[in-house]
Amino acid sequence: MAGVHPAYLSKLFKQETGMTVIEYIQRQKIEEAKKLLTLSDASPLRAASLLNFHDQSHFTKVFKKYTGVTPKQYKNHAV
Predict the structure, then answer these.
(1) pLDDT at residue 78 in the model
(2) I need a labelling partner for 32 at 20 to 30 A (CA). Which of 9, 41, 54, 71 fits?
(3) How does pLDDT run across 8-59, given as a tens digit for each residue?
(4) Which residues of 41-76 are buried (b: 16+ CB within 10 A; e: fewer)?
(5) 79 pLDDT exceeds 80?
(6) All residues at 6 or more sequence positions from 69 whose CB lies less than 8 Å from its CB, including other chains
(7) Cα(17)–Cα(23) distance, rounded to whole angstroms?
(8) CA distances from 43 to 2, 47, 59, 61 (A)
């Protein structure tokens, strides 16, 4: 769509943002997950599902990578 090779676009993205496209997407998903966990009654499993994580284990791993705590710990602390 952008008229450039995906690898080139990825390289430019990393140069401009300092992160890969995947890292950017994951960070955005985790920001949405934080909102879901604090502003609704969504469980970590429901948040993972809504944000298209393949399983709760992967969601928990990515969430902890960017926040330092598990989704459950985050939700319990926010309440």
Answers:
(1) 73
(2) 9
(3) 999 999 999 999 999 999 999 999 999 999 999 999 999 999 999 999 999 9
(4) ebebeebbeebebeebeebbebbeeeeeeebeebbe
(5) no
(6) 63, 77
(7) 10
(8) 37, 6, 12, 16
Cα–Cα dist 3/9, whole Å:
9
pTM of the model: 0.87
Domains annotated on the chain, with CATH: 21-78 (1.10.10.60)
d(CA 19, CA 31): 16
- As a whole number of Å, the CA-based R_g of the chain is 15
Taking each helix axis from N to C terminus, what angle separates 6-17 and 21-39, rounded to the nearest 10 degrees?
60
Which amino acid is present at 6?
P
State the Cα angle at 71 between 69 and 76, rounded to 5°: 90
